[in-house]
Write a structure and sequence with these properties.
Number of helices: 11
Strand content: 35-45%
Radius of gyration: 31 Å
Helix content: 10-25%
Distance between the termini: 45 Å
């Protein structure tokens, strides 16, 4: 057969061109290694190399690095003929990245230059940049470095100039094709709005988002915050802020803010495919989901954003000839975001008046919080097992105090949860009263506080290591229980005599970290803990839908969703079509993944997952499920390999998780670690995107 096409594809996509031995490149590599060590403070470092023949056509380069001793900073001196700038540096020396006793590192010099540039630009020196800072001049003695950094003036006869803001021009709905036709439309609070017709947005929207003010001293931070806040409106393709200087007006600068608009209406469709294959139960499932989303920007001319979504998903029953679907889920949602802080309930005003909330914190809310109204409906059906309907509505705020922190607060929220058990699951509920108590119809409420998500992302490069933190807290029924305790302390209130108010608290913390090891390899880690507990006289268990679970493509991949735990419990499932349902009050989870490029679009991964869930209360039907002093013995451990296809816009992920340690001991040997059969006991996962 003709293999020319195949060979060409392999050469073009898979294979790499051979590297020809080149003495100049070899020497340059050694010099690069030496330079790297010297930039780290190993000034006397040397690198040697030799080329060894391996066969008749292959060579091997061997490099030997000798770093010797590292130099450390002893002192840092600033020098300049501008006494004003020199005095500023001396007063702000505490923030320096070059400190006595630290090892010499060129990265600290770069950080120090960046710090000084920001310091002066935040004091009005708009045109100050790193070109006015010299490389370090150093004197060395006994592995110690006395460093000097010189600040240059623009010329021998001039000093650096502070700038005040003269005029601010804003171009809403900017179109460069008509840039010469914009005319002054209206000036509000020192900001000049330019237009070529009636604007579709109220100018009041910009007042709290533009911090560049006429007559004020220029500050870099104000420019950055202005750009970030205007971008957070979600109305514009990009934000362009351009300075305009005038030769006849030294010391002043104008700013032009160009705001090209996005399309007002937006429709989008997404398709998702996932699969799981549990070899132990001979259970295979394939699921697909379709979502439609709608977005209307500037809905009421006040930069409001109205969005809606319809999501539908099904999981097919591959090995059950008696039915088509394993599960069906439908989600409907609508959300209105308003770019202002609307304290409809008056709670924050009361907290400010009573001085519980500091004045500065209240001002920060007014400056950075957006108001959110949200409603949703969810229908889930696990065929022949259970189904439920859920309605939710909430009022709250999206808060971005800076570019690292994001807070999503739901102050007022009501969720209505109504489940219905099918005969197969009802049999399980009849045999487990603890589980049955968690599965009833309930109303989740919050008036002063419903839930909050706080996210922090460190501003670092992939080479330094990226990390993020997510914290979540939720409370239900606090206000209702308080009123109930006052007016009817001995009787539980129920909604319309049939619907129980849920009383529980829930908290969760998850940290993620990743680091690029080389251009082709990286390492990533995730660690999380979550806890939920009922409270009050009438609540005994956390609602089923609010409990934690593990397993699946984004958790412990050697087990299916809700298969593992709780504690040392093992559920002997005979029917391969029966869904898993194990949940708990406490979750501990850890994942580590080594990622590497392979060829073409393909990436590989080796991973390790550890974790489990536990109950905080005794379940007489599952006594080993409760958290005990031996909980550490009940950690399940899974490992495996993954294959990912990076299509730029999305990543298709195949992970094969292999259990190597169960959460319970073997009945015959008493061992938690599996003796063999790892591969046959694995679970295959297919999903979109990285697991973390």
């Amino acid at each position: 057969s003709d293999t020319t096409g195949w060979n060409n594809w392999v050469r073009r996509v898979v294979a790499e061109s051979p590297v020809i031995q080149n003495e100049k490149l070899t020497e340059a590599t050694a010099e690069a290694m030496k330079s790297y060590l010297q930039h780290k403070g190993y000034f006397n470092a040397s690198v040697e190399y030799e080329t060894v023949m391996k066969g008749s056509k292959t060579t091997k380069n061997i490099y030997r690095a000798y770093p010797y001793s590292r130099y450390h900073y002893d002192s840092l001196r600033y020098a300049s003929n501008d006494s004003i700038l020199l005095d500023v540096l001396e007063k702000n020396r505490a923030g320096s990245f070059i400190r006595s006793g630290d090892g010499v590192d060129v990265r600290n010099y770069d950080k120090e230059v960046g710090r000084i540039v920001r310091l002066f630009r935040n004091m009005g020196y708009y045109d100050f940049s790193r070109i006015y800072l010299s490389p370090l001049a150093v004197d060395t003695s006994d592995l110690k470095v006395d460093a000097t950094m010189t600040l240059y003036s623009p010329t021998d006869s001039t000093r650096h100039q502070k700038y005040h803001i003269n005029q601010v021009y804003v171009y809403p709905n900017y179109d460069p094709d008509f840039k010469d036709k914009y005319l002054s439309h209206e000036k509000i609070n020192g900001v000049q709005y330019m237009s070529i017709g009636d604007e579709q947005i109220k100018y009041s929207v910009f007042e709290r988002n533009i911090l560049l003010k006429e007559g004020e001293l220029y500050k870099l931070t104000n420019e950055e915050v202005t750009k970030r806040r205007l971008g957070s409106l979600g109305l514009y393709k990009f934000i362009s802020i351009r300075p305009v200087f005038h030769d006849s007006l030294p010391g002043v600068v104008d700013f032009q803010i160009f705001l090209p608009s996005k399309e007002r209406m937006e429709l989008a469709t997404d398709l998702e495919v996932n699969t799981a294959n549990n070899n132990t139960l001979q259970n295979t499932s394939i699921g697909t989901g379709l979502s439609f989303s709608y977005r209307n920007r500037n809905t009421f001319r006040g930069a409001e954003v109205l969005s809606g979504n319809i999501d539908a998903g099904v999981e097919f029953a591959i090995r059950d000839p008696n039915r088509v679907f394993n599960s069906i889920d439908i989600n409907l949602g609508a959300e209105l975001n308003m770019p202002k802080f609307a304290d409809f309930t008056g709670l924050f005003s009361a907290l400010r008046f009573s001085r519980i909330l500091p004045k500065r914190s209240y001002q920060k809310l007014q400056e950075t919080a957006n108001t959110r109204l949200k409603v949703g409906y969810t229908y889930v059906s696990l065929v022949d097992f259970y189904q439920y309907n859920s309605l939710d509505a909430s009022f709250g705020f999206n808060i971005s105090p800076n570019d690292r922190w994001k807070l999503i607060l739901s102050q007022v929220g009501v969720d209505y949860f109504r489940p219905k058990a099918q005969p197969d699951f009802q049999t399980i509920l009849d045999d487990n009263q603890f589980l049955a108590r968690s599965f009833g119809s309930q109303l989740f409420t919050g008036v002063l506080f419903r839930d909050m998500t706080a996210s922090y992302t460190a501003n670092r490069s992939p080479e330094e290591g990226l990390w993020s933190l997510r914290m979540y807290g939720e409370v239900s029924g606090m206000e209702i229980l308080g009123i109930n305790s006052i007016f009817a302390p001995n009787k539980e209130w129920v909604f319309f005599d049939s619907l129980q108010y849920a009383n529980y608290v829930k908290a969760e913390v998850e940290a993620r970290w990743s680091k690029t090891l080389s251009p082709r390899t990286a390492i990533a880690m995730k660690a999380g803990v979550g806890v939920a507990a009922p409270y009050g006289r009438f609540s005994r268990v956390v609602p089923f839908v609010k409990q934690f679970y593990v397993g699946g493509p984004n958790s412990i991949r050697a087990w299916s969703v809700r298969e593992l735990g709780p504690g040392g419990h093992f559920e002997n499932v005979v029917n391969p079509n029966q869904p898993f349902y194990q949940t708990g009050d406490l979750k501990l989870e850890y994942s580590l993944e080594y990622r590497f490029d392979m060829f073409w679009l393909l990436e590989g991964a080796a991973f390790l997952d550890i974790g489990n869930i536990w109950l905080l209360q005794t379940d007489v039907d599952r006594p080993e499920a409760k958290l005990s002093s031996d909980f550490w013995k009940q950690f399940a451990v899974g490992t495996g390999l993954g294959l990912r296809a990076d299509f730029t816009y999305f990543i298709l992920r195949f992970d094969y998780g292999i259990p190597i340690r169960n959460n319970y001991p073997n009945g015959d040997t008493g061992k938690y670690w599996l003796d063999g059969g790892y591969l046959r006991a694995g679970t295959f996962n297919l999903a979109i995107g990285y697991p973390f």
